[in-house]
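Researcher: Please predict.
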Amino acid sequence: MLYEALTGQRPIRGAAHDVMMRKRLEDPPPPSAVAASVPADLEASCMRLLHREPEARPDATAVLAALGAAPSASPPA
């Protein structure tokens, strides 16, 4: 969703089967290749979130840290 918010299009387009195959085999173009005004830090975060290997993607805590935020406290049980 971040890629689409930055560029106005999905990172990989096509029929569902084609998208699933391409996601496994190729990286999407960087957001700045689609929208030149994308800030470098947002592009870097976006590309990390789209990494083909799930274990290489940042977790929620890392995303919040990159944004300069802290996780909220869990609500009481």
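Model: Residues 16-25 form the longest helix (10 residues).
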